[in-house]
Amino acid sequence: MSGKAVTFLLLFVMSIGLGVLMGEWFYHLFLKAVPPVALSQFNTQAARIAHWLYGAGVGLVMFVWALIAIALNKVTSMGSKKSQA
């Protein structure tokens, strides 16, 4: 694998991992906010899975934003090189 592929793969894994960690953090905030009387075991586990999935979605959005930033950086650097010549 080339260096670019490894970089993109690492960026993807790190952003999904960060998103899932954010989902877990919000899950713990959810547990603190909802009274225990209102939660069943099923609701608790379903909420955890939902928070993980939303976190993975946030990680995917962060990955796409990073790709857009990389592309914009290349476009602007190519434009500045052409204007200098």
What does this structure look like?
With 85 residues, the chain is mainly α. The chain has one domain. Helices cover 88% and strands 0% of the residues. It is built from two helices and no strands. α1 runs antiparallel to α2. The longest helix has 44 residues, at 41-84. The model has no long low-confidence stretch (mean pLDDT 91).
Low-confidence spans: pLDDT under 50, at least 5 residues?
none
Q: Overall mean pLDDT score? A: 91
Kindly give the count of domains.
1
Nearest-angstrom radius of gyration? 20 Å
Helix-strand pattern:
HH
The largest sheet is:
none
Measured distance between first and last alpha carbons: 34 Å
Strand content: under 5%
Query: What is the helix content?
Result: over 70%
User: Helix/strand/pairing class, anyone?
Assistant: mainly alpha
- Total strand count, please? 0
The coarse silhouette is elongated
> How many helices?
2
